[in-house]
Amino acid sequence: MSRAWKFFQLSAAEKWFVFQALLLLPVCAVFLRLGGIRRFVPSVGEAVPTAFKPEQGIALQQAHAAAKMVALAGRCGPYRANCLKRSVVTYWLLRRRGINCILRIGVRKESNKIEAHAWIECFGQPLNEGADVHQRFSPFDRIVPQEVNWT
Known about the structure:
Blueprint: H1 3-8, H2 12-35, H3 37-46, H4 56-76, H5 83-96, E1 102-110, E2 113-122, E3 125-126, H6 133-136, E4 138-139
Antiparallel strand pairs: 1-2, 1-4, 2-3
Helix pairs in contact: 2-3, 2-4, 2-5, 4-5
């Protein structure tokens, strides 16, 4: 099946997630390059409204759909995004919908090399990663200063 055909098979909400991700992934890359993660990610969390809180089942459904569509945009779009950029964009999209989530960054040592990986967790479930991500990577407690209040 062609990519265009697969895209047209998506729901309107899924297409909207893909469209937003296609626009946000390169913008996110620029802001991460200019400001770094410690400066950029707190501003993403604070810049979005969180007054509307969907129920957990609906929120988890939307969270999985958003993560899947951002991954699709990062894999098939003109800008190939790494896990950090995909996770930051997913985080922003979910926070904007009032869905509480956590941006996780973890590390591991593999063949004398240190590897890092970023993912999103919603209600304790990794969205854009397998459930065993905590066994493969050791997540940091926090990646931004403690005085930032995201609630």
